[in-house]
Amino acid sequence: MDDGRRGQTASEHGVLGAPDAGYRLDRLPASADLAGLVERHWLVSWDLPPGRRDTVTLLPHPCVNLVHVDGRVAVAGVGRERFGYPLSGRGRVFGVKFRPGGFHPFLGRPVADLTERTVPLWWPGADRLAAALGGAGDLGELAGVAEQYLRERRPAADPVVERVGAIVHTMLHDRTITTVEQVTDRFGVRARTLQRMFRRYVGVSPKWVLGRYRLHEAAARIAAGPGGTWAEVAVELGYFDQPHFIRDFTRAVGQTPSAYAESCRAGTAAVSA
């Protein structure tokens, strides 16, 4: 079922730079009964030789994550800026990526309250969850522990979550949608209503979500070899002109498209937070 409720609402992109053998990223879809709220589970693991230090640099999605790291569980709201996670020695970070809007029923207040924030999980049993995740083995076991905890706290159904999911699904997959005005026309919703809906359920504006997904796509295409001129890439991604694309890409990624492409070709660390 490929709709906004069950279909993909977060891109597969977001890890910046050339592929790095120093870490591994695994993903697992949510179980069917939670798939309306949870996009997927993920696990980053690494085992570096003594003295080696690496960094994973990410361009965040418009999603809230439940994260287990260093024996603790935290809730990470949507981050607007890229960030780097330093790697050394051996370790892992496990996360539950909620769909855009999917964490709101658990939170019960505007998700924008968590934007740019990471806070310790405040729900009852958080310490028990942390201990159980610490003792779990592979990604399947980790996901099973997390999902059982979420099932015990499953909120009442909220039809707005499904509507938000359908809108975000369209933003991600429909390349003809390049402006918020096109979104409002497609779904028959007023611009101010859409803004309020996204602040409450997603945590960031619809314009930010649309722009972020296009930048994810741009970074992935450039890393693979863009093919064509920057002006052509800009038009295909919905930018008014090449300078606007280069400006937005450089601000988000920390390098111009040309510099990013060159560092990806060279297999060097492309960006830093």
Automatic annotation (TrEMBL):
InterPro entries: AraC_XylS_family_regulators, DUF6597, Homeodomain-like_sf, HTH_AraC, HTH_AraC-typ_CS
Gene3D superfamilies associated with the record: Homeodomain-like (1.10.10.60)
Membrane-traversing stretches: none
A molecular function GO annotation: sequence-specific DNA binding
Domain spans labelled HTH araC/xylS-type: 162-263
Keywords, in A-Z order: DNA-binding, Transcription, Transcription regulation
Protein name: HTH araC/xylS-type domain-containing protein
